[in-house]
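chain below, 340 aa
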Amino acid sequence: MIRSHTHSPPPEGEALEIAPGVLWLQMPLPFKPDAVNVYALRDRDGWTVIDTGLDTRRGRALWQDILAGPLAGAPVTRLIATHHHIDHIGLAGWFQDRGAELWTSRTAWLMARMGALDVQERPTPQALAFWRAAGMPPEMLEERSHERPFNASDVCAPLPPGYLRLQEGQDIAFGERRWRVRMGHGHAPEHVTLWSLDDDLVIGGDQMLATISPNLGVYPTEPGADTVGDWLESCRRLAEFARPEQLVLPGHKLPYRGLPTRLRQLETNQGAALERILAALREAPRSAVGCFEVLYRRHIGKAEFGLALAEAVGHINHLHATGRVWPAGKTPEGAALWGA
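prediction:
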């Protein structure tokens, strides 16, 4: 059974003590989900903060209020970023400039640093080819080819050239607890999860969410990635450490208990999505975008099209990697077709 620890999140700018010495806060996002969870854990010399939200004027102002209010003016001495996505690491550089150490995985730091430095005014040829092969409609592809793409640096503070590495199996002490690092993959490479050795807390980031599944997108930087396979392997491996009584502090939505059940649910849900795609491809070849209807079972609007495309490619890549689908030609517009 999965049980939410509380029925509602803390109001913006306020904190809720979710466990002894552990404050839960939320930072707003301009996209779905509309908030990211951040956590502050008391240390003798200040606070350890888990994840940050975006680097926006509103985000900085909120943190200034939080530092003066719920954190009582004590310094943030350590920041732990669970992974490199903008909503989790966007203000890491800002905290470092204020004296905090940044702790994260090597891949997360490299990806975040690369993203912050890679500013593009137009989509790259690789991105356009990737979108075309995935089946993006020609009129949308033409429109996007002339638009400035979203850049991580738009909402990420510059990252100074230095961090402290977290590795699989490492033990670290903060927040008056000892924690063991376990890495997840699929949603983000080398995604940090933290498992308390002294009580039943698990800091799960986006690796194990309660009511939504993490996006398992594939992008032009690594178009052949098997993100779904990486994530399923992580679910099975992390299940070895999961217990029903653990309180999971996720990156979005509500904290919850019942992690073993949730990991099984997530794996089952992915299996069902893959089977729906397979059934459709047995009827006729489709592109990745052509699988939207069976994968998502709802209309995909323009605002979420890019993320939906990336995740559809992730599912096709996994089916191809496991020998269940194969290339079946191309459309006149250049979209890759897949059959089963």
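Residues 259-283 form the longest helix (25 residues). The chain has one domain: 3-258.
thats it, cya
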